[in-house]
Amino acid sequence: MTSKDTAQIATKEDLVEFLDLVCRDFKENGKTWENEDLLSFLEAFQAWLGSSQNYYRNMHIDASTVTPWKEVADAFAAARIYE
What residues does each domain of the chain span? Predict the structure, then answer.
């Protein structure tokens, strides 16, 4: 799961479909996630979301163009590995 997977997320429905992908990835590869338990995943989710502006700046993405749905999807994708 990469930022490519979240690139087209613009609506609530897109996010719901993406979360299905997250769930399937966890079922199949959860043991490979850095944050494989709920608490560490939520802590990483919170930390990434709190610093998402830095991510977008580093990726040369204008954060003002990122929809809230995409930002949440990016946080879910990042929380798998974010420390």
Answer: 33-83
